[in-house]
Amino acid sequence: MLIENNTEALAKQTFGYVDYVLCGTFEIDEELEKAKDNFYNYDYIFITDLCPSNEKLLSIEKSGIKEKFKIFDYHKGTADNIDRDYDFLTLKLKNDKGKCCGTSLFYEYLINNNYLKPSKTLDKMVELTRLYDTWEWKEVNNLEACDLTYLLNACGIEEYISRVLKKANESVFSFNGDDYKKINDWKREFNLKIKSIVDKMICLEISKWNAGIVKTDYEYRNDIAEYNKDNKYDINFLVLIYPDKSSVSYRSINENCDVNEIAQMYGGYGHRAAASSPITEEEKIEILEYFNKIKV
């Protein structure tokens, strides 16, 4: 049972067959509750890039099958909110390469426990994932990190995993002509989509900061932030509302604005530049109805 993107590919490369679930930060407890009757059917239950609540962690510890669980997270908000250590929880924010991500922590675990042999191909795939997830690709201008994520968006999860697994068995991790066609076709549509989303942005003041509120699909969250930065909109941070999720994301546009503090105001947490908080169905419906009235 996997929760994150490139960890599915690593798990299939290692174990062959896996079931996986993709969910948001504040959906993890609910997903675990729905799946609890099936836990005994699995040899391992991996959770990456997310961490259950303190209550759910305690429940796992007392479950009698805690040895099946391995949880990998790297968010500062998790470190600030978890009551104590658990032997099935790996919480690491940085290592010698820089900021960690769920995929890099999972890869490290698989290698250290002799489940998977490291390779230059897998090393590169994991590093590209880490660079994009932590946004460090901007610092080193590694466009391949973006291309890997764009390929996921262009293909969808199943086709993406299939393509990545083929690359994992090659001597060099690289993109082929068909990959770039998929990526470029997706980017053309993507740029039009981002503009149409931002054109409907609502601006208002939240806790002394100028906020831009947008309705969007989850996959666009980081790119909308970059679009706002590149086009120099007069906002300090973004609030991203997702029609199909029970959480709200925040992205800093001005480096002086700590969105982790904003998220904490609404019962959430995260990093200084990226955070999230839960939202009730009633609150979400009210906000989305407002967006539906906007004409551009």
Describe the structure.
With 296 residues, the chain is an alpha/beta fold. The protein folds into two domains: 6-175, no CATH class; 199-292, Roll (Diaminopimelate Epimerase, Chain A, domain 1). It contains 13 helices and eleven strands. The chain has helices at residues 6-15, 28-35, 54-61, 76-81, 102-112, 120-133, 137-140, 143-155, 157-168, 177-199, 221-230, 259-265, 281-292; strands at residues 45-48, 69-73, 89-91, 94-95, 98-99, 202-206, 209-215, 237-241, 247-252, 269-270, 274-278. It has a six-stranded mixed sheet, sandwiched between helices. The protein is globular. The model has no long low-confidence stretch (mean pLDDT 90).
Helical fraction = 40-55%
> Gyration radius, to the nearest Å?
19 Å
The N- to C-terminal Cα distance equals 43 Å
Helical stretch tally: 13
Count of extended strands: 11
The secondary-structure element order is HHEHEHEEEHHHHHHEEHEEHEEH
Mean pLDDT: 90
Structural class: alpha/beta
Which features does this protein show?
296 residues, alpha/beta, Diaminopimelate Epimerase, Chain A, domain 1, 2 domains, six-stranded mixed beta sheet, three-stranded parallel beta sheet
Task: Outline the fold blueprint.
Blueprint: H1 6-15, H2 28-35, E1 45-48, H3 54-61, E2 69-73, H4 76-81, E3 89-91, E4 94-95, E5 98-99, H5 102-112, H6 120-133, H7 137-140, H8 143-155, H9 157-168, H10 177-199, E6 202-206, E7 209-215, H11 221-230, E8 237-241, E9 247-252, H12 259-265, E10 269-270, E11 274-278, H13 281-292
Parallel strand pairs: 1-2, 2-3, 7-8
Antiparallel strand pairs: 4-5, 6-7, 8-9, 9-11, 10-11
